[in-house]
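The instructor's notes for this session suggest beginning with a concrete chain rather than abstract definitions. Hand out the sequence below and ask the class to guess, before any prediction is shown, which regions might be ordered.
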Amino acid sequence: MPPPVRSRVKACAQCQAVSPTLYRVQQGGASPWVLICPACREQAATQAGYRYGGTWKADKRH
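After discussion, reveal the predicted structure:
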């Protein structure tokens, strides 16, 4: 029997939209890491100083 799936909820740090997948990014050299939605990540990725730091998913298996 597979382990139960935990479902969590978080909102985008920029637009406040709730998304099942968020991306941990840094948008400048000294700026803090934030979780943003896929739409905001597309915009952020085109800016100087963008750094990707991982993916957060709402459904977690453990």
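Then share the key points. Strands lie at 6-7, 21-26, 34-36, 51-57, 59-60. DSSP finds one helix and five strands in the chain.
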